[in-house]
Design goal:
Nucleotidyltransferase, domain 5, five-stranded mixed β-sheet, EC 2.7.1.17, globular, D-XK_euk, alpha/beta, binds 5-O-phosphono-D-xylulose, six-stranded mixed β-sheet, single chain, binds adenosine-5'-diphosphate, kinase
Amino acid sequence: MAKFLGLDCSTQSITAVILDSSKKTVVYEKSLNFGKALPQYNCPDGFLLHPDPLVKHSNPLMWANALDLICKTMQDDGVNLAEIAGISGSGQQHGTVYLNKDFLREDWLLKAKSLAGAVKPLLTRATSPIWMDSSTFADCRRIDAALGGPEQVRLRSGSSATERFAGPQISRFAREDAKAYADTAVIQLVSSFMASLLIGASAPIDYGDGAGMNLLNLSTLQWDADLLAATAPQLGEKLPLLVPSSHIVGEIHPYFHRYGFREGVPIVAWSGDNPNSLIGVGGWKPGTAVISLGTSDTFFAAMDRVATDPDGYGHVFGNPAGGFMSLICFKNGSLAREQVRKQYDLSWQEFDSCAFELTQPGNAGNIMLPYFTPEITPLVLNSGPVFEGNSMFKAQKDAAAAVRALVEAQAMTMRLHSAWQQQKTKKVRVTGGASRSDGVCQVLADVFDASVERLQVSDSGAQGAAMRAAQGAGAMDWATLSRIFCACDASKTRKPIPANIAIYNELINRYAALEKSITG
Ligand SMILES: Nc1ncnc2c1ncn2[C@@H]1O[C@H](COP(=O)(O)OP(=O)(O)O)[C@@H](O)[C@H]1O
Ligand SMILES: O=C(CO)[C@@H](O)[C@H](O)COP(=O)(O)O
């Protein structure tokens, strides 16, 4: 058997990709949007509405329900799931799920009618904070201080204490609801929670996603005792084991036989969506930077040596192929693009092409700081977008200029805040929803002075997970997997245009000064 299933439980959707390693092709791909497929959870954009814009939670029962639904969808689509030889997956990073001691029993999935029904009585916290949550500023400062400053936290864990990371989120929960925290026996990431559902037991956390918690010591690859102590009481007892990403965490639970899976299918550790995307676009070894234009915009790359960001915005995570990867995350990604598109009543086609045809690189001096929601890179807690330029632009009456200003700002902020890696980017692979846009890809090519390559696959997180299933359960190597599954569509590559490179080399200084005037 040579079919491997990769699942991706990201912010807004769950996706399945099946690879056939003997036919050397992707044989199935399907995505279900949470807002559309599971409207009963009231998460149209993947999260629950909250009066405080800094608080962003989701419903873990929605993710459990989504796993049932994607399995049922594959079965209804005629996929013979008995042919699947291994499964792995991706979870949106940093989100946490809080479970009671019954989660450690062996029988919680045995007689279940549905995954959501089985999980409901196990939750000690009804909702899960996700990566978009920025409500833990005080906890971050407390953790930094306890360790002797942000630099100490960064040197140990790869990141300064960061609002969306699991550690500060756990700290806030333990402070605000000590009783529910005490009742919590296990704290899982979205990735290891989903793996737990597949095996019907508490699954370990892999180094890739585990590094996004401010709790894992990158030198020892173990939980860091000082970070645990600074975060919350008895935390070490509540965290799962840590394992390399290629570890097989268990076999598929008999619950899943109803969908046609055979007995004993190995489940390879799940990881974060970004670590898996690194694999899914063929970026497993240093040399290629990756830009993911999903709900968040992220910039990441396999690292040839570990460096950390002195400004505290960049992160170091585990590379599922071994070693480490850098990552910088921008909250104002697709939802900001959608906001501009809706504000000016544009279709995606108008957003992608017309807007770029009607304006020139540099946007006639019109420039924007794209803080439609509070931003994490750089940290901006209270702002709206900032407009500088001509009166039509500032009055928000010029749709094409607004689109270009947003996309140019998003590209320039990525270049500015990835400079700490000191790895010259000659080639960028783009993935995620907005990578379909030619205009967006051309701006990235010009701002980074790099070729921007696009892959045939649309969900690199799910594809990377399927490739990891083939590596962990099918003993395939990364070079072979990347050669087969990560071919670029050369006709869609965007090359940098020399005149535009010069324009952006100038403009980026103005952008940096404007950013500094807001962030200090
Ligand atoms: N043609 C397009 N141009 C730009 N953005 C697009 C286009 N089509 C879809 N998108 C954006 O892609 C987003 C979904 O991207 P995706 O990578 O699937 O997100 P995630 O993995 O975070 O759930 C949508 O929210 C939408 O804003
Ligand atoms: O916070 C981060 C990375 O640090 C985000 O990239 C999340 O991992 C969410 O991913 P998407 O759902 O936007 O792909």
